[in-house]
Amino acid sequence: MRAPIVLCLLAAPLFIAGTGQAHAQNEEPSEDVRELQEPAGEAVDLELANPDVTEEEPTEPEEDSAEEGEDKETFGDRFRRGDLFGWFDAQARFFPQEAGNPLGIPQSNNYWFNGSMAWEPGFFMNVTDYMNFELILFGRVDQHDRNRTHGDIREAFFELFFNEWTLGFGIHKVFWGVTESRHLVDIINQADLVEDFDPQIKLGQAMVTTSYTHDKAGIFSLYVMSWARPLVFPGPLGRPTLPIPVDNDMRVYDSPWNAGQIDLAFRWSHAWGGFDWGLSYFFGTAREPQLFPTMNSAGLPVLQPFYELIHQGGLDAQYTVEGWLLKAEAIVLTGQGPTFGAVTGGFEYTFYQVSGSIVDIGLILEYNYDGRDNNTFIIFENDFFTGMRLSLSDVGSTEFLVGSFIDAKDGSVLISAEASRRFGENWKILLEGVGYIPQRGNVLQFFRNDAMITVDVEFHY
User: Fold this and answer.
1) How far apart are CA 193 and CA 130, in angstroms?
2) What is the spatial distance between Cα 397 and Cα 209, in angstroms, rounded to a whole number?
3) Where are the beta strands (DSSP E) in 194-262?
4) Which residues contact 382 (CB under 8 A, 6 or more apart)?
5) HSE (CB half, 13 Å, CA atoms) of 234?
6) How far apart are CA 33 and CA 18, in angstroms?
7) Burial of 17 (0-12, 13-18, 19+ CB in 10 A)
8) Helix (H, G, I), strand (E, B), or coil: what is residue 364?
9) Which of the two ends of the chain, N or C, has the fewest CB atoms closer than 10 A to its terminal CB?
10) Per-residue pLDDT tens for 389-408?
11) Backbone angle region of 99, left / alpha / beta, with phi > 0 → left and psi within -120 to 50 → alpha
């Protein structure tokens, strides 16, 4: 009997609510009642329109998790997305004159043509959001000079980023300097002298480096290096080359660890008010050895390289105002005989869009002084450099550069001219000419017959 009574008690409120609703429908609802009724109606509509809402809710996290799985990259994904780049080079060198023998030693490099081929492949990868990796290799095969047939790891470098800090380790190239004719402060990497008789082409150097960047104070960089690379000169069959070959197998080091000496370098750089400043310090194995004449095991005259431990302090500065670039580099070096200083400084002024054309013309004047009095191989110890740069803002990025070193003491001249132009998307041609007008007693006398014309055809990818 209790069950019917309970049912009646439950049904009574429903009956009363239904009766009230019927009376309310026969009357005009007030504004307050209408406002209360409308949200209730919407809630009912939503509830009726989504009867399976409790069944769909568990499926939404599954869709999100699927999307997260698709966005997550693996190491293989980043490796496949890495950037392959590089270039191939076919080079021809022409020598209008026969090779000379200023010391009366018969020369074995008396040829008028030298051909070679080179390849520099590279790979860049974003390993993680905070780490990059770059690999650049280089190799050249030369027709005559076995010293110029060589390979090198230009870069094999990991770099990590932590807000203002960076950390790098591996084989790396670091460039310091601002002047056009000579980079006195650029001491981290060894020059690849067999590639070109221009010390601005560098070999890779093993190092660990870190730097801190501050918006107002500048960039502070520290380098720890080892296994300094020896300076390799062109061999007896190379042109141009020294009249007495340098025997790298006989090289001697000042350090008891030989090439394994730990080298340290520090640099502060900052840009402020049109000025770009750099202060640097280096301690370690000299990159430019002293050369001493001796005899090898076969009884032939050779030059023996000696690599001292040196301290070098450096300053580089550049001021930019309108079309002017004022530049200077200076060093003080101890460890190779008496302490000495060297300085390079001057200016470059550019005329932009001459007479409304696409031509930019830059005029360059710099002075080189080197106070060392030892057996290092220094050509420009008291010389002026004058040059003109011509750039065309055309599709091929055509550029010309003509320059000459003039010895302030005896008037000896080294003149060079370069031109380059791109063709299509991948091809580039470079032309270069070098000539010598030496006076008696000048070191350029050794190269007076080595005037050279070089043609390079490069394919970039």
Assistant:
1) 36
2) 35
3) 205-214, 218-225, 252-253
4) 368, 369, 370, 407, 408, 409
5) 21
6) 17
7) exposed
8) strand
9) N
10) 999 999 999 999 999 999 99
11) beta
Question: How do residues 118-141 score in pLDDT, each as one tens digit?
Answer: 999 999 999 999 999 999 999 999
CB atoms < 10 A from the CB of 444, how many? 19
Beta bridge partners of 272: 275
Q: Report the alpha-carbon distance of residue 96 to residue 143 in Å, rounded.
A: 18
Identity of residue 400 = F
Among positive and negative, which fits the CA dihedral 117, 240, 372, 278? negative
pLDDT digit string (tens) for 153-165? 999 999 999 999 9
> In residues, how long is the chain?
461
- CA-based angle 370:375:377, to the nearest 5? 60
| Helical (H) or strand (E) element with 15 | helix 2-25
Q: Does residue 340 have a pLDDT over 50?
A: yes
Domain with CATH 2.40.160.100 in the chain: 73-460
3-state class (DSSP) for residue 346 = strand
Q: What is the pLDDT of residues 12-68, one digit of tens each?
A: 333 333 333 434 344 444 444 344 344 444 443 434 344 444 444 444 444 444 445
426 vs 139, 415, 422, 423, CA distance in Å?
A: 20, 30, 8, 7
Q: Which residue has the higher pLDDT, 71 or 387?
A: 387
Q: Could you count the other beta carbons within 10 Å of the beta carbon of residue 239?
A: 22
3 state SS of 287: coil
State the architecture of 73-460 in CATH terms: Beta Barrel (2.40)
- Tell me how far apart the terminal alpha carbons of the chain are, to the nearest angstrom: 95
Write out the two tokens for 424: 């299509």
Residues 25, 35: Cα–Cα separation, whole Å? 15
Q: Give the C-alpha separation, 138 to 368, whole Å.
A: 31
**Does residue 445 sit in helix, strand or coil?**
helix
